[in-house]
Amino acid sequence: MGAGRFGLLAVAFLGLMQGNAAAAGFADSVRHVFVTSRDSGRVSVIDSRDDTVIGTLDLGLVPSQLETTGDSGRLLALDGVSSRVAVVVLDSAAVGAVDLDFVPTRLAISGDGAQAVAASPESGRLVVIDLRRAEVVARDRRAPFRDVVAAGDRLVLAPDTGLDILDLATLRPLSHVPGRAYATLSRAPSTRMVYARALLEPLVAAVDVRAAKLAGEVATTAPRAYTNAIGITMLLPEAEEVAVLPASLKGGVRLKGEAGVTGIYSGWFDTVAFLPSAASRKVMVVDQPTASRGEDIVLGAVPGRGTVTPDGRKLYLPLTDTNRVAVIDAEKRVLSGYVALPERPSMALMARTFGICH
């Protein structure tokens, strides 16, 4: 199905953005860090080689979600209040938009970066956007669901009756995993496993997406499950503890934790995990091989969503109540410096990153 059938797609490219760096594009996926602003649609682009701002993009909206398609070279954003999905072609720095007939609040990207799913869980609306042609190629309307995640070429939804597994490119139903209601979903790096946080019970379930069956459960009050870059270690941030356990969900240890953990980031060959806390305004450091706590990194500010460079050497953490991004040396496990920005940041993202713990 093409966009012409629906008559609902409007693509308007807004032209190249300012600066010499923008003229050459931002397609180097191992170099560029994209940092959104809390107060405008501007995105600052940082060169991770020397931690300098080399250009900006204007998305035309203040993003509530920002995603990249890896080596296929697209940056996507939505604001959750308009029907627009901003699409940046990174090799030219051209900014365009796909306008839908509903307000999307979630984005999910296929494993090959060729398609994006824009979704409204509250209304059950889904569309698939072919990012090479900037066309809506499939759509569906179903019962409301609470979360959605892409697992390779599969799309996993969380209605209140278990999990629905769809073909991501066509939205064709493939299977259903019956069970309880789940509130949040996250995936393993292999894309075979999805971890589902129960809505009404303190547990996380592991679901084998290919086999469409429950693979295990673990009791936890953590709001979301995180795995390290190779997917063999799971970290579950609870209010007062952090569970560090194998991805099999069996065994493991519990460490003293921090409240208000905003994400978990694995780095330096999966030897260290960083757990920023909005409540304590610091970063909890966990040594992965020994499952023990290291020395905390004091931020003195509220961390937002961050990103790790593809080589696992640096973690970039926006400090959302300042005009700075903190740069953490993952090998040395220290705060190495800051990048000054013109506005308060909200999120940082790279087209390629070390693992998916964010």
Evaluate the radius of gyration: 20 Å
Helix/sheet category: mainly beta
Q: What is the CATH C level class of the domain at 229-358, in words?
A: Mainly Beta
Number of helices: 2
Quote the distance from N terminus to C terminus.
34 Å
Q: What is the name of the CATH topology of the domain at 229-358?
A: Methylamine Dehydrogenase, Chain H
- Strand residue percentage: over 45%
Uncertain segments are: 1-23
- CATH architectural name of the domain at 229-358: 7 Propeller
Specify the CATH homologous superfamily of the domain at 229-358.
Answer: YVTN repeat-like/Quinoprotein amine dehydrogenase
- Calculate the mean pLDDT score and round it: 91
Query: Major beta sheet, specifics?
Result: 5 strands, antiparallel
Topology, number of strands: 34
Choose one word for the global shape.
globular
The percent of residues in helical segments reads under 10%
Strand arrangement in the largest pleated sheet = 1-8-7-6-5
